[in-house]
Amino acid sequence: MDSQALYRDIGRFFAQHGLWPTPQNYALIYQLVADAQSPAAQAVKAATGDGVRLTQREADQIMDTHGVATAAAPPQQDAAGAALISATRRQVEEFTAIVEASQAQAKSYGEDLEAGARQLEEADGEDRVATLIDLTRAMVERTQHAEQQLSAARSEAENLRSKLAEASEEARSDPLTHLPNRRAFEERYALLQQEGVEVSLAICDVDKFKRVNDTYGHGVGDRVLRTVAGLLRECCDGHMVARLGGEEFVVLFERLAPAQAAVILDEARETLADKQFRLRESDAPIGQVTFSAGVARGSHPLGTPALQRADELLYIAKNEGRNQVRVEAA
């Protein structure tokens, strides 16, 4: 295979599966294209053999298992984060400059007051009155200037606070669905575990999503993901719904046993399966869209991670026909 064909096939895989072209992902897909018999390539084929799109989490697991470093964050997110950090750094520098200038002005103000006091002591009669008037006028001007600088410093502080809040929010939000992202989910889950709150976890995966992308394009696929995200958020109201990546979502059910959580998810699953998806441009039918899910307890006596157990139950649901919810036994 020549270099152009190799590059073309690797790019086609990235486009079909919606993976970010990070160096680590590229190394994995390179093995699939250039060395189809390698263990990593065989693992990718097994994960996508039934037409299911390879998710980033599956790619990470394959890379970990076969000695390839875990994939880095998407470059677009890195660029956005770097821009926010750069803007915040500039504002911090501007704010520091204002504070330093105010400190210098305060020191100069004090020195001028001392000098003025000495002039008053040395002046006599009318000269003292004139000196007092000049000194008062100068101090009023200095005070007004200091107030302007302090106002500017307060404004910069508010801008900085707003930028930091914006950066924190964007770092925990999925740009496509506007759901919390994996980082936000992990932070919330860790907090609930520390507080000893009973939780159940559900991983939901849109069935045969690759078919939607391959048939109708990524624009339609994105609209499907936003619809699924909105449906899960509505049906699981009061519980955290986050996007893990690709077509995978996670729901964090607080103070509910897995069986109770499964009832809510089943209602969401049935509602989605009954929807009639159509192309916006032509009103042509897309077909039924469904999801499968696995629900596990948040804690386990043997210490097996809840996400891993939910993931195992999800794949049981996939292997048994999809469009169903599998629940961890009580």
Question: How much helix, percentage-wise, in residues?
Answer: 55-70%
Counting DSSP E segments of at least 2 residues, the number of strands comes to 7
CATH class of the largest domain: Alpha Beta
Distance, first to last CA: 53 Å
CATH superfamily of the largest domain: Reverse transcriptase/Diguanylate cyclase domain
Q: Mean pLDDT score, rounded?
A: 81
Spans with pLDDT under 50 lasting ≥5 residues?
70-77
Structural class by helix and strand composition: alpha+beta
Total domain modules:
3
**Largest sheet strand order:** 2-3-1-6-7
| Total DSSP helices | 11
Rg, rounded, reads: 30 Å
- The CATH architecture of the largest domain is 2-Layer Sandwich
User: What is the molecular shape?
Assistant: elongated
**How much strand content do the residues show?**
5-15%
| Series of H and E elements | HHHHHHHEHHEEHEEEHE
Q: What does the largest sheet look like?
A: 5 strands, mixed
For this structure, the CATH topology of the largest domain is Alpha-Beta Plaits
